[in-house]
Amino acid sequence: MKVGGEHFRTIWLKPTDNRVVQLIDQRFLPHQFVIEDVRTVAEMASAIREMHVRGAGLIGAAAAYGIYLGTLESAAKTPAEFDLTNAAKQLLVTRPTAVNLAWAVDRQLKAIANAETAADRITVARETAIAIADEDAESCRRIGQHGFKLIEEIARKKSGSAVNVLTHCNAGWLAFVDYGSATAPIYAAHDAGVPVHVWVTKHDRAVRVQN
User: Fold this and answer.
1) Fold classified for 1-211
2) Is residue 74 a contact partner of residue 62, using CB atoms and an 8 Å limit?
């Protein structure tokens, strides 16, 4: 997604320091665009618990990066002392019902279990976190492309009139690493110049959006 003409994901490693995870702090939106630097497991746990980040896919990616930060904090420990149980617990209790969070933590722990040295653990955790984020973004992109074909077909039948789309709950770009899930086809249609008329519902209210 572009903000001020620049492409952003919702979470990423800081380009100048890969020991820092950066994320869009959603508490300040839409009035301010704030990028938060996260350096520890505790800070990532707070970011998830206090809803700096929101949405299934993004929470999963944040948890994966949280475990990566845990390997950095544990780098000085010997293999016998190394234990990410506490880091995992800190993250898991932030959103006990979040399926993506538990899945990402479990995937990280399984990947790290095969690493023999502190450096290996850090590398594996970093690569796994990046992979989880990349996979989330790619899945959403593909949802957008598949869904766009349906919108495009409807648009042809309507001879250029706006295609009416209704979507519910938190399914946009900010809920995932990029593109969004249910809204990804809408973004793709907009980018392709296909007019869409969107109803976005949340609980008992609906908001009308038209491009």
Assistant:
1) Four Helix Bundle (Hemerythrin (Met), subunit A) (1.20.120)
2) no
